[in-house]
Every structure is written in C-alpha cells, then in structure tokens.
Amino acid sequence: MAHTYTPGLRVTRRATIRKRRQLPLSGEVLVSEGESVQRDRVVARTELPGDVTTLNLVNRLGVTPDELPNFMLKKEGEPVEPGEPVAETRPFISWFKTTVESPVSGTVESVSPVTGQVILRGPPRPVQVRAYVDGAVVETIPGEGVVIETVGAFLQGIFGIGGESWGAIHALAATPDERLTEDRIDASCAGKICIAGGLVTLDLIRKAREIGAAGLIGGGIRDHDLRSLLGYDLGVAITGAEEIGLTVVVTEGFGDIAMAAKTFDVLNERNGDEASISGATQIRAGVLRPEIIVPDKAGSAVAEESVAREGLSIGDPIRTIRAPFFGKTGVVTALPSELAAVESEIRVRVLEVRFENGQEAVIPRANAERIEA
Questions:
Q1: φ, ψ at 72 (rounded to 5°)
Q2: DSSP string, 101-134
Q3: Structural domain tally of the chain?
C-alpha cells in the first residue's frame, strides 16, 4: 500500500533536543564545546551595520559632483553628530553661504564625485544570541554560533506569536477545555509560563501582559482577538518578532478548542519546572513550529526516541486540521487501501478515526495530522 505523508506535532515527555543558536552575521562565539550553559547565557555576539542616510549635496550646495570634495568639511571615515556641519560653500559674501548639517550621528561612509551624494552610516547595533535552553554545548560553529543539547519534555504547537522567553510552568486550568477568565491571572503569574487549558482570549493575554507573565499557552485563539492584539492581519509569513510583552503559544488551532489531553498532561506533570518557549511560526515552505521545552532537572542522557515513519499506522493519535472536525483529536482505527469519494466528488485516500468523545468518522488522510509521541 502506498504511503501518504502526514505532518505531525511532536509531544513527548522526554527527548534529546538540539538547538542551533546562530548569529545573523559573522561574529564571536563566547562559549566552548562541552561547556554547560544556562538559558540566559550570551553564547555569541556580533554587530549589525548601522542605518544608512543619504545626502544629495550637489543639489543643496549648487555645485557639480566633481567639485563636491572641495566643499566637504568631513572626510570619509570621520564621525559626525546631529547638527554638525558636513559641507558648506565658500562664497565671497558670507550671507550667501550654504551649510549642510548631519541629521544623524555616525560616520561618513562615502563621498561620491560621480553622483554627488554623501552616505552617512549610523552606529553599529549590537546583537547577542542567548543559549535559550539549559544544556551543554555539543558543537561550536566558528564565527557563527553553537549547538546546545538538552534532555527533557518537548512539545510543539500549531501557532504562536512573540519571541523566545522562559520561566516556570504555572498550571492554572483544571481541565484541557477550561476557559480561564482574566481574574485568574494574578501576581503569582509574574515571570511564569501560564497554562490556560482551552481558549486564550484577548482579555486573558492583556491581563497576563499587565501582570508580567513570560508566556501563555492554550488550546485555541480567535482570529479577531489576534487581529485586535497585533493591530493587523497576519499573512503567510513568519511570526516571532512581535513585541507584545509576552509569548503566546496555541497548541491546537484557531477557535474555541480544548488542549489535547496528552499536551495538557505533560505540561501539568512539569508544573513548577523551568521551561523555555518560542512563538516563532512559519506556515509556508520550511515549516517552523512554536515550541515548549522543559529540561529535566537531573540532566539524564537517556531519552525517548520517536521513530521516523513514512505514513500513518492503526492506533496512531491524530488531530484533524480541517472542517468539519477541525481541532478534534482521536485515534486511527482503520486505513482502507481503496480510494473513496469525498464531498467534493474527488476520490482520495481516507482513514477511519475514533475521537476522544467516542464519535467515529471517515476523513481524508490529508485532513489529519499525526501527534508524534
């Protein structure tokens, strides 16, 4: 029987996790292979070139490009400050003198006798890459970064916003489908990663941000709440750079959806343990999932390993990713080999599933996502 590729979220209590921590430009690696690092440790750093400001001096001074060097008060490589003169004319009558001042601080990068333009470069911006997770450096990439290995619980979500953050797991919901109200977020949530169970509402996010929570994890989120929070619609792009004051991870999808039972159980089992989370999500080519990593306190090198498979098997836990069963989780009960007609009248491969509430259904295999253990 032919296999059908089935994407899946990984949800495991114990695994070996390797995180590549890399600079955007060549820089300096600050740790050595074999060294133990904490999540907030700076492991690599570099400087990004400053912003460019272009001055069209030939028009402002009324000279030709080849004459421009004669009117410059600053040479290439020299520093400038806002309001400091960089060029001026030298007329016989001083009243007619024209002076051009720098609008920014930085250095004179180039003076072109061809175009008559002067380029000012702002001061460099420091960039630091932190370890993100507690673990050991297993590889150094000279001038670029490191690979850090840790052992612990690893959970992937469907969607997230906000960058990387860390804090202790703080279980608030009693059940996977509980919808928390904002009054449940109090001072005890400050600096913590709060587990909300089901729906994550706009009010809940705002209250968590106000309190100073590091993160908020729930089963679902409404698209209009997300739009109100960000102030714009998200396109097919990558998230994670949003500055919203905390990290939000949605484990199941959009709408009022309960968190998958296993995800909820794993997070509650690690209640109080320190965790690292990232909301970075990419839904185009090169899929990137939001994640929750809870390193083991003991740091044991023995870990569960998930076996890579080409397709689904009977007994696999799955989540449906399209209507009419969107967001529901269950178990594969049969994998018919013959094609079956669906509502659109095309014939596709299907599977039979039994959902957690006991309901059984036949759905296209493309509508299912395996929950990897």
A1: -75, 135
A2: E-SSSEEEEEE-TTT-EEEEEPPPEEEEEE--SS
A3: 3
Q: In what order do the strands lie in the sheet with 125-130?
A: 28-29, 42-48, 125-130
pLDDT in tens, 309-320: 456 788 888 888
Cα 273–21–5 angle (5° rounding)?
85
128 domain residue, yes or no:
no
Residues 223-262: b if buried by 16+ CB within 10 A, e if exposed: eebbeebeeeebeeeebbebeeebbbbbbbbbeebbbbeb
In sequence order, the β-bridge partners of residue 372 are 10
Instruction: Give yes or no: residues 322 and 290 share one domain.
Output: no
pLDDT tens per residue, range 297-352: 864 444 454 444 456 788 888 888 777 887 788 899 998 888 888 777 788 888 89
Alpha carbons 218 and 222: distance in angstroms, whole number: 11
Q: Which amino acid is at 87?
A: A
Is the same domain home to 225 and 267?
yes
Angle at 354 between CA 289 and CA 158, to 5 degrees: 10
